């Protein structure tokens, strides 16, 4: 897959990210390369990361995915701290439920590059037909919402 460019909402000046993904047989690997002149605020790694809500309030790397033609979708959130979460929605912001992953995602942040490898929840492989990578990047001066496309009049990663 070629790299996908993620831009800040409203194309305002700020960081950009190059995203790529490897859809392996059992594991999915996402790679986010951040290009930024400002000082990034990166949550430090923790020793025993767990599934955690509200990761998007700080620097967080996200992947939304769904089946073609479906309203149902999944949302994955990954923090440089090692924390993560996964949610399933029945339609736009409706019917949210937490989905448990069979193992802890393996993530690493180094020199403006965030990598995460994880297993798709069992029975959800068909959700990988439409991919929508996103990120919330917290910098010293401002917080940015990056996506390959912004389809609303405010940052809203759930529209894709």
List keywords for this structure.
160 residues; globular; Immunoglobulin-like; 11 strands; 11-stranded antiparallel beta sheet; mainly beta
Write the layout of secondary structure elements.
Layout: E1 4-8, E2 16-23, E3 28-35, E4 60-66, E5 73-78, E6 84-89, E7 97-98, E8 106-110, E9 113-118, E10 130-138, E11 143-147
Antiparallel strand pairs: 1-2, 1-11, 2-3, 3-9, 4-5, 4-10, 5-6, 6-7, 8-9, 10-11
Order of helices and strands: EEEEEEEEEEE
Note the beta-strand portion: 35-45%
Number of strands: 11
Question: Which runs of at least 5 residues are low in confidence (pLDDT < 50)?
Answer: none
Q: Which CATH top level class fits?
A: Mainly Beta
Tell me the CATH architecture.
Sandwich
What proportion of the residues is helical, as a percent range?
under 10%
Global outline: globular
Mean pLDDT comes to: 94
* N- to C-terminal distance: 19 Å
Fold-level CATH name: Immunoglobulin-like
Write out the strand line-up for the largest beta sheet, numbering strands in chain order.
7-6-5-4-10-11-1-2-3-9-8
Structural class: mainly beta
Please tell me the total number of domains.
1
Query: How can the largest sheet be summarized?
Result: 11 strands, antiparallel
* Number of helical elements: 0
Q: What's the Cα radius of gyration?
A: 15 Å
* Oligomeric category: single chain
């Amino acid at each position: 897959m070629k790299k996908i460019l993620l831009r800040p909402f409203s194309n305002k000046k700020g960081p950009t990210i190059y995203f790529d993904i490897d859809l392996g047989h059992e594991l999915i690997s996402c790679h986010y390369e951040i290009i930024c002149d400002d000082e990034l605020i990166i949550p430090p790694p923790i020793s025993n990361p767990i599934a955690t809500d509200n990761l998007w309030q700080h620097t967080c790397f996200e992947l939304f995915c769904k089946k073609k033609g479906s309203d149902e979708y999944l949302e994955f959130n990954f923090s440089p701290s090692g924390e993560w979460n996964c949610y399933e929605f029945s339609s736009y912001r409706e019917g949210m439920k937490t989905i448990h992953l069979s193992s802890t995602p393996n993530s690493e942040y180094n020199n403006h590059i965030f990598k995460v490898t994880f297993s798709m929840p069992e029975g959800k492989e068909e959700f990988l037909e439409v991919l929508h990578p996103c990120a919330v990047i917290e910098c010293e001066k401002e917080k940015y919402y990056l996506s390959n496309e912004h389809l609303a009049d405010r940052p809203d990663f759930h529209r894709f």
